[in-house]
Amino acid sequence: MARASVRERVRYWFDNTMAKGTGALIGWLALVSGVLIGAVGGLTLWLTPSEVKDGAPGAAWAVLVRTLSPGKIASDSGTMPYLTLMLLASLGGIFIVSLLVSLLTTGLKSKVEDLRKGRSRIIETGHTVILGWSDQIFTIVGELVQAHASQRGSVVAILADRDKLQMEDEIRQRLGDTGRTRLVCRTGRPTEPADLALMNLEGARSVVVLSPHGDDPDAHVIKTLLALAKRAGEHPPAVAAIASSGNMAAARLAGGPGVHLVDSDDTAARLIVQSSRQSGMSVVCMDLLNFDNGEIYLRADPSLAGRTYGRALTAFKGATVIGLRKQGKVVLNPPADTPIGTADEVIVIAHDDSMIRLAAGSAPVDEEAITTAERAGTTAERTLLLGWNPRARKIVRYLDGYVAPGSVLDIAADHPEAGTGLTGLRHLTVNTKDCDTTDRYALESLGVGLYQHVIVLSDDRYPAPHADTRTLMTLLQLRDMQAALGERYSIVSEMHDENNRALAEVTEADDIVISDTVIGLLLAQLAENRHLADVFGYLFDSYGSEIYPRPAGDYVRTGGPVNFATVIESARRRGETAIGYRLAAGVNQPPHFGVVLNPDKSATVTLGGADSVIVLAER
C-alpha cells in the first residue's frame, strides 16, 4: 500500500474539518481574516509608519475596519502605499464578508428547516400518538376531536415521514377547527426507534399504527411494531390495522401482547355481507363506530347486582343496554334471565358518558301495542356479486354461513381470478360469468331482476379514484334498470374514498361500505378504549347475536303512537334486544339515513309498515 504524501494528509485533514458544518467554516473564515489583518497591518507599520496612529493597535484597527466595511476606503487619504494597502484589506474583506453572509444564510436556512420538521421531543402526557400517514388519519383525528370535545388539554401527536407544516395544513383543510384538541406533528420514520423517542411514548395514552397506501403496506406496519417492541421501557396499548389476513400471525409476533390488531379485509368483508342481508346495517354500524351519535360504553354499577339482564334493559334513562361483560368475556343480547353480578360490567349505547345514569322509574309499557306475529323462516335466495377483489373469497364464505341451503350466488366479473378458490361451500351454489360490470348491455343480460340481493365490489386492479368511478357507473346503471323495469333488489356497494359517498347517494344504493372509513373509525374507538375490541368483534362475527333491522310490525302495532319502552319489551319477549329504529321516510337523508339509535324510552314514535326496528338477535 502506497504511503500517503504530506499534501494528501493535509487535504484529508482539511476535508474532515470542513465536514463538521457551518461552525467549522466560520472558524476558517476567522483564521483567514486574522491572517489578512496581521499581514496588511504589518506591512502598513513597515511601509507607512507615519500614517498609523497608536502603533500596532492602530494599524490592526484600521485594517479590521476596512476588512469588515470595505466602503470605508472611500473616505481614506494619504500616500499611495498606504491607500494601496487599505485597498488590499478592503478587497480581502469583500471576499470574507461575502462568504460569511453566504455561510450564515445557509446555516440559518438549515436550522429553519430543522425547526419546520419538528425534531424536538414531545413533553405532553396523556396524549394519543398516531404513527404513519394515510387517508384514514383524517377519520381518526376527526373522531378523536369529537371524543375529546369536552376535555381541556387534549393532544393528538402524529409522527410520519412527511413535512410537518404540510401535515398540519392538510389536516386543517380537511377537518377545520379542532376545538380543544391540539395537534402536534413531528417529521420522522415510525420504523426508527430514535424517531419514536420524540413522541414520549411512555407518557402517551394510546398508540395507533396506520397502514400506508402502496405496495405491501403490512410490511411497514409490522416493521413499526418491531420498532415499538425494541424500544426500552413500556409503551401504552397500541392498535394497528393489517390489510391482509395472512399477515396477522407475523404482526402478532412482532407486536406482542400489548398490541391489538384489526384485520381490515376481514372486517370489511363481514360488514359487506351483513349489509347485503339487512338493509341499513352499514349505517347502524357507522353510527355505533363514530363519536357523533350513539357510542358504546362499558359501565360497572353495583346497584344493578342481583337484577337479570331482561330487567336491566330499561334501567338507564339516557342509555340503552345491549349486553354484559362477565369475567372479562363480552356477550351481547344474553338470555333475559342472565343474572348481573357485582363485578359485571353493563354494555350500553349512550350519546355521552354523562348520560349513563339510572332512571328514577320505568317507562310504561303498552301491552295492547305489542304484536305476537310469527316471523317467517328463511328460504333459498339468489345473490349477484358484481366485480372481484382479494376480499371476495371471504365475502363468499361468510355469505355461505348466512344463507339457507339451496341458495345461489352468481359472480359476474372480468377479473381473471373471479370465482376461484371457493371449494367447500355448504349452502351456496356458485356460478361465474365473464362480464364488464360497467356495461349496460352486459348487466341487462344477467337478468338482475331475478336476484334478491346485489353486491358491487371495488376492483383493486385500478387506483382507488378510478375504482370508485367504475363502482358509481355500475350503481347508476343498476338504478336506471330498476326504474325502467320496475324491479326491486337490495344493493350494497364497496368504495374507497369517503368523499365519493355524496356522489354514491345519488344512486340511492341501500348500503355503501367505505372500507377505509370503517377501519379508521374502529381504530379511533379502540384508541379510546381497547376493551371495545371484544364488543365490535362480537358484532361483526357470524356467531352469536348480530344487528338486524326488522319490520316494525313484527314488534308493535303500526300506524299509531308507541313509546320505545314498549318496543324494548316486545323484543325482549322474542329473546332480542331493541337498540333503535329506522324510518323509511329518511333512508335517503344523510347523515343518519333514517336511523335513530338509543331513543328516549318514554318518547312516542309512530312506526309504519315500511319502518324497521333495529335489534340484536340470533339469526
Task: Explain what the structure shows.
Among the domains are: 104 residues, Helix Hairpins, CATH 1.10.287; 130 residues, NAD(P)-binding Rossmann-like Domain (Rossmann fold), CATH 3.40.50; 134 residues, 3-Layer(aba) Sandwich (Rossmann fold). The strands form five sheets. It has a six-stranded parallel β-sheet, sandwiched between helices. Strands 13-12-11-14-15-16 form a six-stranded parallel β-sheet. The mean pLDDT is 84. The chain has 19 helices and 22 strands. The chain is elongated. 39% of the residues lie in helices and 19% in strands. With 619 residues, the protein is α/β, with parallel strands linked by helices.
Quickly describe the structure.
The protein is α/β, with parallel strands linked by helices and 619 residues long. 39% of the residues lie in helices and 19% in strands. The chain is built from 19 helices and 22 strands.
List keywords for this structure.
Helix Hairpins; about 20% strand; 6-stranded parallel β-sheet; single chain; Rossmann fold; elongated; about 40% helix
